[in-house]
Amino acid sequence: QVGRVCLLYSGGLDTSVMLKWIQDEYEAEVVALTINLGQPGEDYDVVREKALRLGAVDARVIDAREEFARDFIVPAIKANAIYGLNYPLFTALGRPLIAKIAVEIARETGCDTIAHGCTGKGNDQVRIDGTVATLAPELKIIAPVRDWKMGRDEEIAYAREHNIPVKGGTETAPYSIDDNLWGRSSEGRWIEELDHAPDDDVFQLVTRPEEAPDEAEVVTIGFEAGVPVSVNGQAMDIVSLIETVAELGMKHGVGIVDHIEDRIVGLKVRDIYEVPAAAILLPAHAELERLVGTIHQNRFKPGIDQQWAYLVYAGLWWEPLRSDLDAYIDEVNRFVTGTIGMKLYKGMARVVTRESPNAVYDAQLATFSESGGLFSQQASPGFIELWSLQSRLAWRLRNEDRG
Amino acid sequence: QVGRVCLLYSGGLDTSVMLKWIQDEYEAEVVALTINLGQPGEDYDVVREKALRLGAVDARVIDAREEFARDFIVPAIKANAIYGLNYPLFTALGRPLIAKIAVEIARETGCDTIAHGCTGKGNDQVRIDGTVATLAPELKIIAPVRDWKMGRDEEIAYAREHNIPVKGGTETAPYSIDDNLWGRSSEGRWIEELDHAPDDDVFQLVTRPEEAPDEAEVVTIGFEAGVPVSVNGQAMDIVSLIETVAELGMKHGVGIVDHIEDRIVGLKVRDIYEVPAAAILLPAHAELERLVGTIHQNRFKPGIDQQWAYLVYAGLWWEPLRSDLDAYIDEVNRFVTGTIGMKLYKGMARVVTRESPNAVYDAQLATFSESGGLFSQQASPGFIELWSLQSRLAWRLRNEDRG
Amino acid sequence: QVGRVCLLYSGGLDTSVMLKWIQDEYEAEVVALTINLGQPGEDYDVVREKALRLGAVDARVIDAREEFARDFIVPAIKANAIYGLNYPLFTALGRPLIAKIAVEIARETGCDTIAHGCTGKGNDQVRIDGTVATLAPELKIIAPVRDWKMGRDEEIAYAREHNIPVKGGTETAPYSIDDNLWGRSSEGRWIEELDHAPDDDVFQLVTRPEEAPDEAEVVTIGFEAGVPVSVNGQAMDIVSLIETVAELGMKHGVGIVDHIEDRIVGLKVRDIYEVPAAAILLPAHAELERLVGTIHQNRFKPGIDQQWAYLVYAGLWWEPLRSDLDAYIDEVNRFVTGTIGMKLYKGMARVVTRESPNAVYDAQLATFSESGGLFSQQASPGFIELWSLQSRLAWRLRNEDRG
Amino acid sequence: QVGRVCLLYSGGLDTSVMLKWIQDEYEAEVVALTINLGQPGEDYDVVREKALRLGAVDARVIDAREEFARDFIVPAIKANAIYGLNYPLFTALGRPLIAKIAVEIARETGCDTIAHGCTGKGNDQVRIDGTVATLAPELKIIAPVRDWKMGRDEEIAYAREHNIPVKGGTETAPYSIDDNLWGRSSEGRWIEELDHAPDDDVFQLVTRPEEAPDEAEVVTIGFEAGVPVSVNGQAMDIVSLIETVAELGMKHGVGIVDHIEDRIVGLKVRDIYEVPAAAILLPAHAELERLVGTIHQNRFKPGIDQQWAYLVYAGLWWEPLRSDLDAYIDEVNRFVTGTIGMKLYKGMARVVTRESPNAVYDAQLATFSESGGLFSQQASPGFIELWSLQSRLAWRLRNEDRG
Hints:
The structure is a homotetramer.
Chain A lengths: L3 E5 L4 H14 L2 E8 L7 H10 L4 E6 L1 H14 L11 H19 L4 E3 L8 H12 L4 E3 L1 H4 L4 H10 L14 E5 L2 E5 L29 E8 L2 E5 L2 E2 L2 H14 L4 E7 L5 E7 L3 H15 L2 H19 L6 H14 L4 E8 L2 E8 L7 H4 L12 H9 L1 H11 L4
Parallel strand pairs in A: 1-2, 1-4, 2-3, 4-5
Antiparallel strand pairs in A: 6-7, 7-12, 8-9, 8-13, 9-10, 11-12, 13-14
């Protein structure tokens, strides 16, 4: 019942085996689709040719970096988007875009089915299947890894049998990698042993802090309405800006994350992330946002941001609650304009300067010397009296004899 | 109307001037009270003698380190207590204890008044006045800095006139410092200029990362029911443990915080914090807590923790909501038992290993190879279908023609 | 230092005494300002004449009903705004508008001071003083009740002495009343005794349920984008609509509230409210909003709404967090279009019908008979397996022997 | 692969057909299990005999009313447990207990499988399957309705063929009913039409308000530590108390709910509920809880309660987050002691009196006359100044020219 299949094709072993297997198993034509979200070092011509060589009737490469940065990463920056303790959601942000483009290409190329390489234990199937079912319920979805019984050894055997090139040695399984403009993840091997400290070979993006320059470097990020627009005073389009900041972070060993995560399908996993751009831009944005926000805004927004990150992580990009949250987040960010200086040094990124025309900060108020204007020290006793009134009354009721 | 005054006495310029001034202004006897919460490097004998020399009728030094660690810092660890982006609340945690002890000593020494050196623009007056008014509403409170018109120059003139020793040169005002076992804050001078990156001379506790050892060090922290109980496998009482961890952090440049903060009295200020113990123990605890918690627990606790930190910051230590939150937090922490390895290197502290008998982690589930038991990959399509159902339905209603 | 005073004048005893007293005490001219927010049964000509007779140099009456309904009540409806268990915030919504108009009139009439009749124990001083200090920090504020020592008896004596008419008998103090288009509150007398069930004479707006019609009546409210726009199919401007719905509620005994409330200044009070329009429009709106919202939206909005109500109650109408919340709330309400039927009967208002083009409801899905399309029953076991996975794993870890 | 089956047996058509069908389909012995959670008017002897007549090898009836009330309803009262706008969760509370007892009886009677009558579209399968999989992962679960293709007509045909008695006429499908001590739900027929106001015949428990007594009645509920312990001053065990209060509510038409609900499996449904006891006990508890709580407690608890209700609704009774929430809730309820008077009249239940030794209410503070002690009106201006400080500063930054 499968006609023509649009396969999300990365060029790696899994999806190469799949490309062949779908043709055999379903007797279906395959359109290979590769999407450029800024994976560092990828050669898309090679990927495209490999797809055609493996029998794809068509092989498309779509450069979606700008859309990814503008419509997915920027909202994440405005939302200070972190899932769990430290995951900046790069894969989670990429999946709904990948699936949306797959729907577009499938329709354009007359496919009735979308195929992807997600396993049945991860979040990505939720994000991709959910997007396809939302945007194009008429399309079928096949996810061979979820169904077939091949482990890595069977995959390699199948690859050899069908003349599919297998990169590198085959003795040890490689890490399982996913990456784009906003970060890179590694899973598998010793990463699954929680008490195994990271081996150095996992870090392919970020310099090990021990090997980073001995000189610290301060980089300033300019924001307008919550969007990063300049680096060290130089205006840049958003893709270039993220790439430039990532370069700086990589150089200084910034953005290494060793993370335990609660997957939406109910299990915990460990991931090693390298997020050199996010580790600089997210704290810079958060600092500026707090500077222009009142105490009430600053206490309330973390709950909004946490929910935004959860929805995106959970594959609910198209859920209307996200639009509601975005409306709130955009309103806050209207005033998030200014410049933040970040000091980078051997794995560390720390805010050291900040400046904004909207800062709710009055140096005269904040100073130790007597101030006039908006604040009088004489107001404090009255404030304290009413501020603590009910707590005091309750404490006495609960702690003193009433005899 | 002031009889005898219990003065919270640090030995510094402000409270020394105060000690004298209260005797003159109110014709009142003064009992000087100095509380040891683990201020690094303080010589309490010197402080005590200075108080007596300035006319105190009695001068008490109370070692409250153990009570502070056990009843204030440990609950803060269990609550992952951070206010704003990065403040581990050390001063905020100390104030209610200081004020509680002041009440005890005031009653013991027949004082009818408690005096403190807080200004009218800070949080500490809220915490101290609030505590005294809660525990001993019959006591009066005087806060000379709130009332008098002395700036630093007048203080120094007053000190000279009354033979009060003034430490160091007098040309430039020093930073305004507060410290205890859990951290150290600096305010004043260039810190009030938000775009001024930290000058090196402000760091008196933590080694500058650039001067920290070139070799990284991994320290393991053992927890039982949320309480840190061992360092590198060696059991320690809580005060020693915090001191030991602080030493390690100081050595490796860990725990520097440059922070903009929303004070409870309505203004924003910048503080430089040095929190070498907190910067290691808090992330270690948070990591372990997430490891033993379910996704539901892990999503919900941050809101609890944020509220706990806010109450403590806001001087509402005695508010019954804190007890309610503590009940929740203690229940979570019953299972927070295990060991976390932290890598320390030139200003950075990062989790690298974790181990717990209660980890909601099943390596077999998490692995890439096919797993049995609690998880079947075949369950995923059904999950995804129902998980995304309403969002899909809503999206279609909102985005498609209904013609 | 007071030049010319703009007095918020209601025509009642307190502000009449004040009108005279300000002239005497400050030797200042008084401009009386009376604002029509839809107080039922008020004769503004009488109020105006009384002000002039008592010496006001000018007496203005401003009809602000439309602005009140459009800019204050409608946002409250969209926010399902309830403070505590049951207070629909009518007074809290009116105060910032009253103070804003006072600022405008003060500027227009050359006043340098605004005077109001709020006590020092209530919320209204926070709302009015806060608004004036925000919009016009150059204006002074006087609140005679906060300062003077007059009780009711002294007020009456003062009134007699100065020929100020005193309504009704003077033996028993009347209830303290505040009202506008959105409701009416009573305080004082037996209301302060929490175990005293309401005496009938307090209800001057809503028919006692026992005396309401024996026949129930169903009223349908039409909403567009969250705004009520029609009653029983008849389009109405918002002021007329609220008045019409209030009439129906009053007739059927709907909207009686007996409420204990946590004032922002730290004390608890009891109020008797009569809110016939709110008791119909708020549940109608809430029902429709839930019908067009997904489970995610419906779980999240109550926290948004609670915060909105708190800010408004707490006198923080001008706080930017309110704008952030409004952006969220408006986004949700874009789709809140449809019709709700409410059954009114002897004190009760209950939703009985609902209809919306945006309902996330599919009768075919919801029915017991087998359904196709978006839902397959076969999906459930997979959903349940993953949905409960972590909870099960955690439960076993915590409850079973690990021997 | 099914050996012996423990069937949750209600005596109705569905589970009677199932009892027979399981014997035929699986060639398995069936143990029928019927659990008394206080379903009004049920004759358990008749149910038991019917089961045996239909071939059950054993038929057990377990009276679990006390456990249900004590361990499920009482925590729900303490949590003010409402899901959505108005559902007091009676079915959701009963399911985990039913499944827990099923596990016990299955083990006791040597069954390897539990069977239940839940459909694949409802919440109950999540609650029951989730409980069984948590407590007894070794047990299999069969849910024939999820699998078979029988509609109501096929069921009746099957019943006739196998001599299973069919209650009442068979032309029109009856409402689908579930009930226990805490309430009764109806689904099906016109209820699925959202714009169809309730037909009278659906109400089998609560008197129609129009037919309720013309005289109002005040009932007082006494609470100790959050638990209702007396009615009108008379102490009662919890089961009797709930039954007594339910009687009063039924008599006065109290507790009719017409509800749209977001099921956990992703669809919306309408239910008609009759909850006479909950409609009195829940608001009484909420009122008392607010009376003894501070403003901080009262603002925070609704978020806790909402989460508790969600977990229970979502079939996550055994999730450790519920224990965490319970610890919080129990701490709050330690002080929820006192008496609440509720007025019942023609469908309405309204708080009219309250009394508690722990009330954070001081009549002297709350009164209009000048008060001493904990409150001075002079404190207010200072409070207002600091309370509004940041909002004012932000407003000016955002709304005024900076020229």
